[in-house]
Amino acid sequence: MYRPNGAKQKLRAGAPVYGCWQAIGHSLITEVLGLSGYDIVLLDHEHGPASIADAVPSLQVLGGSPATSMVRMPWNDPVYAKRILDIGAEGVMVPQVNSAAEAAAAVAACRYPPAGIRGVAYGIARGADFGLAPDYLKTVADNLLILCQIETRQAVAAIPDIAAVDGVDGLFIGPWDLSGSLGKLGRFDDPEVRDTILRAERAILDSGKWLGSLPSLGRSPAEMVRDGCRIVISPADITLLRDAARADVAAFRTGTAAR
Fold this sequence. Notes:
eight-stranded parallel beta barrel
């Protein structure tokens, strides 16, 4: 049901939030993550196989957990944003935002006229409790968490302009795509890659908007928070499952598996 955005409340109070990527796309996975203590469970529709229809049961189970539900959209697409918000996402992450104009377009897709271009169906949409949430129209713009991803050299240069766009709550650095845009994919020990990531972090912090990222440059999530990151979305359901399974098999092979 429509409710205050818990992650956004924590951020406004000055606390960092910790999240997990959900890429498998099944609602039971989402439910486990939502009940495990993460502040945010982010449904990854950029790289995961899930559809908008698949997101409905995941958003339903997150509504019964303390975790804030977010969706990373496949692209900066107003049609996708409209549909994801109508089914109840409490936040969106928009990939590959490279300019203030693109950031403004992302925000406009999430806001009703006259502030934006979002199509109006709050009288029947699940996100508005099928028209039963009396304060939805008044509060949804402030309640929604909007993150723009910084993933290219061009985006790093435009951080002050992107951050200045009304409605952009935070800027989330994608270190892998950013390293790729420099022609040095995954080479986080390269001085140019390292300096570009650190320069992007400083620019976001200087802007006053919330800095988000996944751990990079050999830093742990706690070290990211130490360096000013307020939104850390670190593990993925796939990596949690894969790494636990590999460790379990290795323990069995070496005779050290728990009884």
